[in-house]
Design goal:
Elements (H helix, E strand, L loop, with lengths): L2 H7 L8 E6 L5 E5 L7 E5 L8 E5 H5 L6 H14 L38 E8 L2 E13 L2 E6 L1 H4 L10 E7 L8 E7 L1 E2 L2 E2 L2 E5 L2 E10 L30 E6 L13 E7 L12 E6 L9 E5 L11 E11 L14 E6 L2 H5 L3
Antiparallel strand pairs: 1-2, 2-3, 3-4, 5-6, 5-8, 6-7, 7-13, 8-9, 10-11, 12-13, 14-15, 14-17, 15-16, 16-19, 17-18, 18-19
Length: 355
Amino acid sequence: MDSRLTAMEDNAGTSDDALEFHRSSNGDRWLLCRRERKAPIVRHVSNAASGGTVSELAVGAFLSSQSYGPEHEALLELVVGSILPARGPAQPDSGPVALAPDPGDRPESHTQVGADALLLAVTRVGTFAQERRLTNASGFFFQRGTRLFLVTSRHVMIDVSGAHFPDRLEIEFHVDAQNLAAATWMSVPLYTAGHPLWRQGTDDGGEIDVAVIELDRAALPAGAKFQAFGPGHLPRAGDAMPIGAPLLIVGFPLGFHDSLHHLPVVRQGILASAFGLRFQGKGCFVTDARTHRGTSGAPVVLRAPSGRTPDEPPWLLLGVHSSSIDMGGRDEQMDDTLGLNSAWYADILVVLTAH
């Protein structure tokens, strides 16, 4: 290895010849290196616990890797940023809509420029078995007093039938209120001494496909910017939820999102079962919407009824998207999929975040 480059990398990895563009939560580093009269390469330096081993790939081979992760996005953003002129975030006509919290559970304000605050309450979730990336999912923040939780589907944490056993998650945070392109990842362990750190619920119908894990505020990335739902976003007893009511499902279908601004996308759907009733005896309701893998754990929301004061939440959190529904006996050659989905009632969050 070039000893001159090695010495530079030990000093924060930045020089004319080696530029560190991503550092993972476990200490792995990725550097863009250019040596004299040679094409740039990507150098991966593993953490000390893994022996500090070094591997190198051509930039094209690195970006075409099937194990796509945040280090690939970081390189793309570096390359794009060097080609395209900087642009400030777009200014909406009416300004961002704040997720106004319940007075008893009021989070600090994290509204950012150029984005509806609803999008800032939702985060990308990656599941990992040690350093091996397993799946992508969606999640959102829920706050009780000063306590902050990540909410997602229980099968994101563990899925015995699918042989899915991650030991940690990574979730994404914005870190600059004026620049939505600035973001970083936080690693969230799922176990301590063999005991799960997440909470899940059950009822008379069996397991509920919702899980929450409390986030250590002291461990949040420096300058983390986000929004959070709270109990004040849950429907009230008098709120009307008519069949066919328009819903939004906010998440990351197949991992698709605004990769520059690190924001989710919104799928539109309708309420397809009687809200308040337990569909087929389970604690869920049905939505009619086009969804994909990666949407598990996304919030299902409805615009709040008219007549509420400006201090009250503009969105109602109805449920947590779980999965699509299909008929076991469907003829795949003759019959389309139902296009229906199960969403678990969000009031389970009051129980799961109580203590």
